[in-house]
Amino acid sequence: MRKLNHALLASALALACASCTAEKEANYQVIPLPQEVSLTQGNPFKLNENVLIAYPENNALLQRNAEFLSEYIQQATNYAPKTKAIAAGEQVKNAIVLGLDPGIANKEGYVLTTTPEGISINGQTENGVFYGIQTLRKSIPAGAKGATVLIPAGEIKDEPRFSYRGMHLDVGRHFFPKEFIKKYIDLLALHNMNTFHWHLTEDQGWRIEIKKYPKLTEIGSQRSRTVIGRNTQEYDNTPYGGFYTQEEAKEIVKYAQERYITIIPEVDLPGHMLAALAAYPEMGCTGGPYEVCPRWGVFEDVLCIGNDKTMQFLEDVMSEIIEIFPSEYVHIGGDEAPRTRWEKCPKCQARIKAEGLKADKKHTAEDRLQSYCMTRIEKFLNSKGRRIIGWDEILEGDVAPNATVMSWRGASGGIEAAQMGHDVIMTPNTYCYFDYYQTADTKDEPLGIGGYVPIEKVYSLDPTFDLNEEQKKHIIGAQANLWTEYITTTEHVEYMVLPRMAALAEVQWTQPEKKDFKDFTKRLARLMKFYQRDGFNYAKHVFDLKVDFTPDVAKKAVVVTLSTIDDAPIYYT
Ligand code: ACM
Ligand code: ZN
After folding, report:
1. pLDDT, tens digit, 9 for 90 and up, residues 211-259
2. Which of 240, 244, 470, 518 has its C-alpha lying 20 to 30 A from 144's C-alpha?
């Protein structure tokens, strides 16, 4: 034991000493791993406070990118390189030069070239340049205070595997303030993600201001109490609430846009609507009364599809949503909508009759009523130039014709949808539900919803499964979801997504033949220093030291196993 402690101390001292040298080395082995890295034997580029970051004059996006790079370098080194606009053809020395190159095939692709004289980062678009900047930023050690950073000479040619690289956050069950949403978006950018799926409405809270229906937030954003633990019979009797004004949401949209992240808003319908029903009970089949829901689960009270006022309400809400969110896609939910109220509701039954909705062997007339609702909202949004995403339940009945399907109940819904020719985003709960526990040993974990999705499992996802080449093209990407029934604080949000987001980033970006979990964990150790430096709360299970110190009598040693990062036992004699 004593000897082991000495060994650990010695390595800690070695690390501490490394940080007092004035030079640090950059390393392109980042997360997500670039597709092609070729190093030359030339001298490295020396990054120090005299280096300039240059961008083409009159390109405001590349100017913003240059400012981001300067900020990122400052976070690591304490010095912020100056940015400078340059004319076409103008040469700058000792600089990182940003530019566009229409010869780069992928819209988000980039080429980063380093010589002893300078670095160039080119993209087909400014988006691609931004990802080159992310790679450069992550290759610089997180803590290089005051140091000259030696950036290896060579070339990186990189592009993402998938065009849709998302993270979701449920702000319905628990509300997270605007400033935290921005931090979450910063995390997406760090992981080369380009889509934030913002789940804005739930049974337990309506979180976005809708001017035509003020009671949605006056009443629907507040619940009077919350169940204690996992749906016990006890409540905390403490009011809870919060919402984003349209101005705040627009501010967040802009913040995300600057980081090349599209926000897809979700208004989940026709189920998960108790908060809206508490505000406007006439839109439910029974007329209420309803309560902004204090419990977790799936509830029978859903929107009344037979009521024309409800359909008008949905169109009015969507009209305001698309004014706030310029995304091509709007997510309209469609999950977990029980049919029980519709079966008994005269208005819903009249709609079924009037629309000629019929049961068949696979689907009830009420299943078709849900499809009717989704299709109506899809047509409305299509008429405004938008497209819809729905959870995989929209496959039950007649699928809204142009819908993109988000597969969550495993991958089978997504596989089926791709075979039918729909675009698909894979978010299978078996790989991508970050509200599930990340360790099997849950006794020291904060209370969670259950499940088990360790980081290795996330990493192992191949979103195209064994689809054929044609069907694979319909898998546009992958996303992880964070449902927040049991996640009440921003620190807990961070703990659930970090570092599993890093594994997801590599699923989304890197070609499968380049993925290697063990290699990933080595690169993860470096990325975690960024999490640490930037004050994020992250889980460390992947690097847990198993302190069982098994005596090995034959070797006169204790065996210490460093789990996951290195399977080989380390012997201390
Ligand atoms: C879901 O998890 N209900 C989409
Ligand atoms: Zn009804």
Report:
1. 999 999 999 999 999 999 999 999 999 999 999 999 999 999 999 999 9
2. 518
Question: Starting at the edge strand that comes first in sequence, how are the strands of the sheet with 45-47 ordered?
Answer: 23-25, 148-151, 45-47
Question: Could you give all domains of the chain from N- to C-terminal order, each with its CATH number?
Answer: 20-159 (3.30.379.10), 164-336+371-488 (3.20.20.80), 543-573 (no CATH)
Asked if residue 463 has pLDDT above 80, the reply is: yes
**Residue 120: strand pairing partners:** 97, 113
CA neighbor of 377 nearest in space, from 321, 332, 325, 425: 332
Q: Does the C-beta of 336 come closer than 6 Å to ligand 1?
A: yes
Beta strands in 419-572 (DSSP E): 424-426, 475-480, 545-552, 557-562, 570-572
User: Is the C-beta atom of 335 inside 6 A of ligand 1?
Assistant: yes
Q: Which helix (H) or strand (E) holds 97?
A: strand 95-100
Cα three-residue angle 431-432-436, rounded to 5 degrees = 90
| Phi and psi, residue 157, nearest 5° | -115, 120
How many angstroms separate the most distant Cα atoms in the chain? 84
Question: Does residue 70 contact residue 80 with C-beta atoms inside 8 Å?
Answer: yes
CA 303 to chain centre: 29
Residue whose CB lies within 8 A of the most ligand 1 atoms, among 408, 425, 431, for a mutation test:
408
Burial grade of 418 (CB within 10 A; 0-12, 13-18, 19 or more): buried
397 pLDDT tier (thresholds 50, 70, 90) = confident
Predicted local distance difference test score (pLDDT) of residue 464: 98
Separation CA 183–CA 177 (nearest Å):
10
Angle between helical axes of 178-190 and 126-139 (0-180°, round to 10): 80
Does residue 19 carry a pLDDT above 80? no
| 3-state secondary structure at position 333 | strand
How far, in Å, from the CA of 482 to the mean position of ligand 1? 10
Residues 6+ apart with CB under 8 A from 546: 560, 561, 562, 563
Given the structure tokens 């530019």, which residue do they identify? Answer: 99
Residue whose token pair is 């490295």? 44
Residue 272 CA, closest ligand 1 atom number:
3
Q: Output the CA 221–ligand 2 centroid distance in Å.
A: 24
Long-range contacts of 381-386 (CB under 8 A, 24+ apart): 381/318, 381/322, 381/330, 381/332, 384/318, 384/319, 384/322, 386/322, 386/327, 386/328, 386/329, 386/330
Beta bridge partners of 99: 122
- Average pLDDT of the chain to the nearest whole number: 93
* Lookup: tokens for 14: 């070695």
The reply to whether ligand 1 has any atom less than 6 angstroms from the CB of 372 is: no
